Amino acid sequence: MAYEHILVETHDNVGVITLNRPKALNALCTDLVREVGSALNDMEANNEIGAIVLTGSEKAFAAGADIKEMADKSYMDVYLEDFITNGWEVITTCRKPIIAAVAGYALGGGCEFAMMCDFILAADNAKFGQPEITIGTIPGAGGTQRLPRYVGKSKAMEMVLTGRIMDAEEAERAGLVSRIVPLEELKDEAIKTAAKIADLSRPIVFTAKESVNRAYETTLAEGLRFERRTFHATFATEDQKEGMQAFAEKRSPKFNHR
Ligand code: CAA
């Protein structure tokens, strides 16, 4: 399928989606979000792909929802089209791991897009923020809910109330990003990391992702029960047998995703 606002590539078993609307610093207009959703659905259905990288340009991962597109909408417009939720949630329902590789600005919806992914690798020039308050609105794609879960209440509240932008080092210290890599290595490192995941057992990767996500949706007791049951379930897979047998035989495992 031909896309206008994104580039789609595959590197062996890794799918890469690059936001590509440079004149607007990858502002997330409706069509761009729709294209990302469509590309993700294709990658989810493609058995060759085991993990996905979502990235932008060196200057901007994404500078937010498209302010020009939003500016004149009425309450009834945004309510009826379920604005911002509609179309964005594909990132959170995708079972294959998605790594956000963030360079430059990840502001507003851009920061929220990144936080919907499974983890964020940041280039050393990355900048994160929820500046919606400075344009008379609030984060609308999970910023008030996911940011506190990543960085805690105090920092999230300061960022949401003031619109202050944090740099990559602060984002790493706060736990928003898993690690920082030099800008020129970001894409390669993200693909390498995704390939490492894609080479592992697909059902076990799905199970691990589902179990970590459960930590953010339930109580500790329920989460631990879920983990125990899904851990037990891994013993019903061929890949658990292969993985442990390969360890005992001092060889690399050959997972067949069953
Ligand atoms: N929406 C629409 N267009 C945007 C945009 C956005 N979020 N961010 C940047 N652009 C456009 C600019 O309008 C400009 O276009 P023109 O050349 O046609 O004027 C172009 O991208 C380049 O931007 P700047 O000239 O502003 O570039 P800069 O380097 O001087 O500044 C910036 C960069 C600090 C990121 C600045 O562009 C900026 O503040 N952008 C808006 C950030 C923002 O408020 N994001 C939150 C949006 S609301 C939201 O996301 C709601 C939600 O929760 C989902």
Would you write up a description of this structure?
It is a single chain. The chain has 258 residues and is an alpha/beta fold. The protein folds into two domains: 6-198, 2-enoyl-CoA Hydratase, Chain A, domain 1 (Alpha-Beta Complex); 201-249, Lyase 2-enoyl-coa Hydratase, Chain  A, domain 2 (Orthogonal Bundle), CATH 1.10.12.10. The protein is 45% helix and 16% strand. The strands form two sheets. A six-stranded mixed β-sheet has the order 1-2-3-5-7-10, with helices on both faces. Strand 1 (6-11) and strand 2 form a beta hairpin. Helix 10 packs antiparallel against helix 11. The two termini are 30 Å apart. Residues 24-25, 27, 63-68, 84, 105, 107-109, 112, 131-132, 135, 139-141, 143 line the site of acetoacetyl-coenzyme A. Acetoacetyl-coenzyme A is lined by residues 24-25, 27, 63-68, 84, 105, 107-109, 112, 131-132, 135, 139-141, 143.
